[in-house]
């Protein structure tokens, strides 16, 4: 039985602070999945198809595999239950599907208009949570069918699925786009390690040479710099975007709370945490795979900044 929610992020659709005295509690990036109301149709991941000139299209749904669902039976007589969603896709666009469950190891199939199906699954043995990312360059315009199932037979339980569609060439959100739209765009770009946003390299960490920083070609707030930090050893990338700058700490903290309220409004149902020290304050929103922050940083004497971080 399928069940849906829009964590909405088009909804949607977040640094290391300086030294602090108290050791903050570490953020746990694994909130529990919450299943809500039953969807009215199999088009619940097709509420927001990509339109001309649009930077990103995003839909999020939660559901549950059950013994009442349609199933395929293997030669040993074991069944795999599945839910189906239809997607409207255009030639040249990039589809990214993120599928996660705390109950079973995930597997998906995407049936193309020519009735050929591409399968993909989490290849890691199940342990507490299964998360799988599927990227697909759309070969032809038409209606596609996404089937969500388990990699191992006889499995049922709750899941979350998120669909991003990106145009063949990066399109940036309008300067006056709301905060949620900008977050959705950046979360989609994080699926691609921010490769589409990478500009000129500005520095390399001298000690190991493994951490590189690049200018980002997109500014969340026009005139305020953004940068991409890449850890080559861990294979991870993060985007830091300056949102505002102040000469007084009190003003920076007030702006931080305003942006934090917007962050929460764009990410309902996520896990939130606040970390605070003598020289910084950070508010985070997290899921299995996302870690978004807004933080107040001290840049120098009478110089404070509010910064958005997207991991």
Looking at this protein, list some descriptive labels.
311 residues; mainly beta; 8-stranded antiparallel beta sheet; 5-stranded antiparallel beta sheet; 2 helices; 17 strands; elongated
Number of alpha- plus pi-helical segments: 2
Structural class: mainly beta
The share of residues in extended strands comes to 35-45%
Largest sheet: 8 strands, antiparallel
Oligomer: single chain
Would you kindly provide a written description of the structure presented here, covering whatever features stand out?
It is a single chain. The protein contains 2 helices and 17 strands. The chain has helices at residues 179-190, 249-266; strands spanning 57-65, 70-73, 79-89, 94-101, 106-111, 117-121, 130-137, 142-150, 157-166, 198-204, 211-216, 226-231, 236-246, 271-276, 280-286, 291-300, 303-310. The longest helix has 18 residues, at 249-266. Mean pLDDT is 87; it is low at 1-40. 37% of the residues are buried. It is mostly beta strands. The chain has a domain at 194-310. An 8-stranded antiparallel β-sheet has the order 10-11-12-13-17-16-15-14. The protein has a 5-stranded antiparallel β-sheet with strand order 2-3-8-5-6, with no helix packed on it. 10% of the residues lie in helices and 42% in strands. It is elongated and about 70 Å long.
């Amino acid at each position: 039985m399928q069940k849906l929610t829009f964590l909405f992020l088009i909804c949607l659709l977040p640094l290391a602070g300086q030294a602090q005295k108290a050791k903050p509690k570490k953020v746990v990036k694994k909130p529990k999945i919450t299943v809500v109301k039953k969807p009215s149709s199999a088009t619940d991941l097709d509420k927001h198809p990509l339109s001309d000139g649009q930077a990103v299209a995003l839909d999020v749904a939660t559901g549950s595999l059950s013994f009442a669902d349609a199933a395929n039976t293997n030669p040993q007589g074991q069944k795999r239950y599945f839910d189906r969603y239809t997607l409207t896709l255009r030639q040249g666009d990039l589809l990214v599907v993120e599928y996660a469950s705390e109950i079973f190891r995930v597997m998906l199939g995407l049936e193309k208009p020519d009735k050929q199906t591409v399968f993909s699954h989490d290849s890691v043995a199940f342990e507490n949570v299964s998360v799988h990312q599927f990227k697909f360059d759309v070969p032809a315009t038409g209606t596609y069918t996404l089937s969500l199932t388990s990699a191992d037979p006889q499995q049922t339980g709750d899941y979350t699925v998120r669909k991003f569609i990106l145009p063949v060439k990066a399109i940036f959100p309008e300067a006056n786009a709301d905060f949620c739209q900008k977050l959705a765009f950046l979360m989609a770009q994080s699926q691609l390690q921010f490769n589409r946003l990478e500009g000129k390299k500005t520095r390399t960490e001298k000690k190991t040479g493994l951490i590189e920083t690049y200018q980002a070609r997109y500014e969340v707030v026009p005139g305020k710099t953004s940068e991409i930090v890449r850890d080559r050893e861990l294979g991870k990338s993060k985007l830091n975007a300056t949102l505002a700058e102040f000469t007084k700490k009190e003003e920076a903290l007030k702006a931080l709370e305003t942006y934090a309220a917007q962050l929460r409004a764009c990410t309902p149902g996520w896990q939130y945490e606040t970390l605070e020290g003598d020289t910084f304050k950070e508010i985070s929103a997290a899921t299995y795979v996302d870690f978004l922050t807004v933080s107040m940083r001290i840049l120098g004497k009478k110089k404070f900044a509010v910064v958005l971080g997207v991991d």
